[in-house]
Amino acid sequence: MKDDGPLAHLIRRLAVLPGLGPRSARRAALTLITKKDEMLLPLINAMEEAAAQIKTCPVCGALDDTSPCRVCSDPARDKSLICIVATLTDLWAIERTGGFRGTYHVLGGVLSALDGIGPDHLNLSTLQTRVKDTPPREIILALPATVDGQATAHVVMDMLTDYNIPVSRLAHGMPIGGELDYLDDGTILTAFQARG
């Protein structure tokens, strides 16, 4: 196979997507090409539509085709509760539960010295403006239970100290249905420290 032809170019483009390596990209590319009318052309149309219509919400940083996004513009949402998440996929995970009726703030990632992601790379200035303009009654940190997630949580809490707003975190520890023998040491330790 030529390394510079359109098929090779498609494979290279697909291989950079999360979860796709070179082999998966080759299989996906071959499927798309062999089923051009059923799969490739509709995918191209969907990608063009997404590129033209999806925008970043100026309030929370989520992606949507409306501005502000559907969550921020929903009158049934409790605007006095802000749940801070790292990514849009975290927001979707919380929304799947149907248990949170407040609003969100998407940081766009977490701090990572290894990846060169500092506070300036995150959606923190919008959060600060938002909190200053309309102080919420509570901020909930729903950030990953990783070193980078915890470092990000500390930066956010430091940024919010002047506003005297209660900040809570999601509980960490034993999952429902989890057995002690199958949990890692860090999860067990966190469960003990957060017991209630």
Structure overview:
The protein contains 8 helices and 6 strands. The strands form 2 sheets. Strands 4-3-5-6 form a 4-stranded parallel beta sheet. A hairpin with a 6-residue loop joins strand 1 and strand 2. The mean pLDDT is 92. The N and C termini lie far apart (61 Å). With 196 residues, it is an alpha/beta fold. The radius of gyration is 21 Å and the shape is globular. The protein folds into 2 domains: 6-53, Helicase, Ruva Protein, domain 3 (Orthogonal Bundle); 63-169, Dna Topoisomerase Vi A Subunit, Chain: A, domain 2 (3-Layer(aba) Sandwich).
In a few lines, what is going on in this structure?
With 196 residues, this protein is an alpha/beta fold. 45% of the residues lie in helices and 13% in strands. It has two domains: 6-53, Helicase, Ruva Protein, domain 3; 63-169, Dna Topoisomerase Vi A Subunit, Chain: A, domain 2.
